[in-house]
Amino acid sequence: MSPLNIVILAAGKGTRMYSEKPKVLHALAGKPLLQHVLDCAAMLNPQQVCVVYGYGGEAVPAAMQQYADVTFVVQNPQMGTGHAVQQAMPHLGDASNTLVLYGDVPLIQCSTLHQMQQAGDGLVILTINLKNPTGYGRIVRDAQGRVLSIIEEKDATPEQRKIEEVNTGILLAPTKMLRDWLAKLRNNNSQGEYYLTDIVSLAVQQGVAVHTSHPAHEWEIHGINSKSQLATLERTWQLVEAHRLLEQGVTLADPARIDVRGKLSCGRDVEIDVGCIFEGEVSLGDRVRVGAYSVIRNSRIAAGTHIAPYSHVDSSEVGANCKIGPYARLRPGTKLGDEVHVGNFVEVKNSEIAANSKANHLSYIGDSTIGSRVNIGAGTITCNYDGANKYRTIIEDDVFIGSDTQLVAPVTVGKGATIGAGSTITRDAPKGELTLSRTKQVTVAGWKRPSKKK
Ligand code: UD1
Ligand code: MG
After folding, report:
1. C-alpha angle with apex 107: 258 to 19, nearest 5 degrees?
2. Total domains in the fold of the chain
3. Residue of 17, 81, 153, 195 to test ligand 1 pocket, by largest number of atoms within 8 Å of CB
4. Whose CA is nearest to atom 1 of ligand 1?
5. pLDDT digits over 139-174, tens only?
6. Which residues have C-beta within 8 Å of that of residue 443, sequence separation ≥ 6?
7. What CATH number is given to the structural domain containing 426?
8. Which structural domain range is residue 234 located in?
9. Does an H or E element contain 154, and which?
10. Ranges 34-38, 55-59, 342-346: which has the least confidence
11. What is the pTM of this model?
């Protein structure tokens, strides 16, 4: 097979988005539209990828800096899809095929593009039959069913407008032929634009075969022109993701109420309640249960762990058979061993908590290393920040921290130590001993509450 170039058209303004942001930078499933297309393009092992940008100036290349091998070509002014592809041509070698994709058609699948590559030599256009073809270019065929041309809706006769087979815009052509055809385009049409679609009739005139190929799903070719279309395609995609999970055996309380903005991998017998959001790369081990309205981002949750409703887990590693939440917050750098309990209104940040330890109520654990079988009483706070620098708190195995304790870091609580409730611990507490810092309880005999002055 000849090497493949990919040209992604992304110069359009997206007037109907009513946004300062270029259209292709709006996100679907947590990722800019253009990034979906670039990630799909990368899977085809292309020799060269060119993005044609225009509206929004350097915002588009600036937002895509992680794609170091991609060439960004500016199109200014924007004079049509044919003119747009022409801007990329100087970057493409003749001995190749060129695939044209659209930065605002985010869900095109690699498998559909592979199929286009198998469709035959010559020009390959991706078409689809739509019950309502309004707005699309129509595929005009002869009596034998051979493709003759693509006619834009604005240039079509009423008879042609009845054609249900439409141009998705995506096409594949031998680069040298494409270069020649693009040079011949004229803008004598109703929009005064250089139409990429006119290369079809040029191919036909030259006797070059024109093949059609079709996407596996209609949603693959849906373009985004408005926030309404963006929201609709988001829901479509989320349902696709939900059914993919269901087919793998994941239990979803409601496939219409889960959002996956990234990659979610699940073991066996995972259960996910309604309203959960998964961002980035998340993996859930066997038998993990995620309670309603939890948000989990870039984290690994090991087998058998139960996350109760309204918990937030961000960039954390959670061991097996833990109990998290409800209303727990695990912030970046949290590492929990097995069978750890983190209960309601407990915030953990940049801390390790080893196996079988518990912090069940109303605590802040930041920059801490906590051993095994430790009990952190309700309301315990690690004071990790002096206003300028952060310090660590170390709590060794088998420690019991009484409720409402402040641990002023840097501080170490030795193995097996007990801290009395209500203490402010500013110096290391020795192992095995009871340490507390309280004034003695006194009773003032005969004391009266003040009463309101008349
Ligand atoms: C185009 C096709 C039409 C097809 C439809 C599918 C042409 C002439 N028509 O029409 O047959 O059914 O897509 O959605 O190709 N763009 C640029 N520079 C330009 C013009 C457009 O980069 O100068 C980009 C836009 O950002 C957009 C894409 O090309 O991503 C399509 O442009 P658009 O104006 O939406 O074309 P349509 O009229 O929808
Ligand atoms: Mg369009």
Report:
1. 85
2. 2
3. 81
4. 169
5. 999 999 999 999 999 999 999 999 999 999 999 999
6. none
7. 2.160.10.10
8. 227-435
9. none
10. 55-59
11. 0.94
